[in-house]
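#struct-pred
JK: can someone run the complex with S-adenosylmethionine? inputs below
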Amino acid sequence: MEYMTPLIYQKIIKTLSYIYSKSAVDEKIDLFRFKDVLDSYSEGQYESKLWAVKELEKHITEAYNTCLIIGGWYGLFSHILCDRGFEKKVKNIDLDPVCRMIGKKLCLFDNIDFETGDGLNIFTNEKRNRKSKIVVCTACEHIDSEELYFYLNHKNKDMLVCLQSNNYYEVDSHINCHDSLQDFIKSLPLKTILYSGTKRYKDDYDRFMVIGK
Ligand SMILES: C[S@@+](CC[C@H](N)C(=O)[O-])C[C@H]1O[C@@H](n2cnc3c(N)ncnc32)[C@H](O)[C@@H]1O
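RT: done, structure tokens with the ligand placed:
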């Protein structure tokens, strides 16, 4: 982040200014996006994404040609991944179309792209459900547990996945929290666990992470 930090802050300031101007003329853009963009690049988000990138890097080989991110939001994970040297294609997929619009404005790397759609479709798409793909979802707490299990159960057996959830039940949109790392692991149909761990955030909640196949 040594070089990326000042640039990303400039981009964030420009993007907040864009959101302010756009909110006056485009009903899809309202001022809650200020808070959402700032939250997405907050210290806690940075820590949890850096943790994911550092652990995931240990398993990335030349065999992988793309990293697909489900619920990529405004692209922080992709920025950290590329800032630390990942040069292959990275695609942020988010249900919310505004994430693509804002994510593109914040973007610092040519190999990062944004797409609007349901990221779970990766696992039923012949071109994407391949052993050459890495799939990341640090937003499992936002995805229905049965749905996540169903789609992951279709994944290519050699595809590498990195998944995070938490025990932060207090947030309404968190529909798939877990009491412990073991509960999170049990909720996933992975055949091989390459890494699993827990991190505590400001005495508020625990974040769980699993990397596997
Ligand atoms: C609040 S954000 C991210 C929270 C999480 N702590 C993180 O940093 O990844 C969750 C995002 O996931 C997106 N999302 C939820 N389900 C999705 C799905 N099935 N496919 C793509 N995006 C999804 C939402 O639109 C939202 O932008």
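RT: quick notes.
The first strand starts at residue 66 and ends at 70.
The beta strands are 66-70, 89-94, 112-116, 133-137, 160-166, 193-201, 205-212.
JK: thanks, will look after standup
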